[in-house]
Design goal:
about 200 residues, OB fold (Dihydrolipoamide Acetyltransferase, E2P), 5-stranded mixed β-barrel, 6 helices, elongated
């Protein structure tokens, strides 16, 4: 197939524009001390690529195209790179946290811990409000939000009594039902909550 000169010139212009954009992008990242973002970009994206790296690649692609990175974007890029660099240590902390966690007990017991997340889902009686909680001893459990605490949010420190059962797949995870005598005892600081969320992969 014969390629027209117009098409060829267009492709050359596009290639030169991309090359110029890449050079400028590298300069901007270097000026901001974010050189590692370029390394992540060059590594590309595969099915195994983590969320942070995917976002970094997308941001660098836009930087190549538009030659502009706002202060807010640069700050976010740094946060992403910090997470990439801290991933190994975080995995170590998660492993240690899990190793030290107690197994979920069974039977009717009093629970003390913190709400990790809340989710509404369809149940036998219609919409049900469920929550994931982490105990003071480290085990985690899933069950219904107590009726008298429908307005709670993640990070709330909570106490209640309920029937607990242990997961067949994970002794350090369980389920609870019929929570009663529930009360909130405080609110966890956002920084402490984020640390727990990272350590529990939530």
């Amino acid at each position: 197939m014969k390629i027209s000169q117009t098409f060829f010139r267009k492709r050359v212009r596009e290639a030169l524009k991309i090359a110029k954009g890449k050079k400028r992008a590298q300069e901007i990242l270097t000026e901001l001390g974010l050189n590692q973002a370029w390394e992540v970009y060059n590594a590309g994206v595969t099915t195994d690529t983590k969320y942070e790296e995917r976002v970094i690649v997308d941001m660098v692609q836009k930087l190549i195209r538009y030659a502009n990175l706002s202060d807010k974007q640069a700050s976010f890029l740094k946060v992403l790179l910090d997470k990439v660099n801290g991933r190994a240590e975080l995995e170590r902390q998660r492993a240690a946290e899990r190793a030290n966690a107690a197994e979920c007990p069974t039977g009717r017991l009093k629970f003390k811990g913190v709400i990790i997340s809340i989710k509404e889902q369809d149940g036998f009686y219609g919409h049900e409000l469920k929550m994931l909680v982490k105990s003071e001893t480290g085990f985690m459990a899933w069950g219904s939000v107590p009726r008298n605490l429908r307005d709670v949010s993640r990070g709330e420190q909570i106490e209640f009594e309920a029937n607990f059962s242990q997961s067949k797949k994970d002794a350090k995870f369980g389920f609870f039902k019929r929570p009663t005598k529930a009360k909130c005892t405080g609110k966890m600081a956002e920084g402490d909550l984020e640390e727990i969320l990272e350590q529990t992969c939530m």
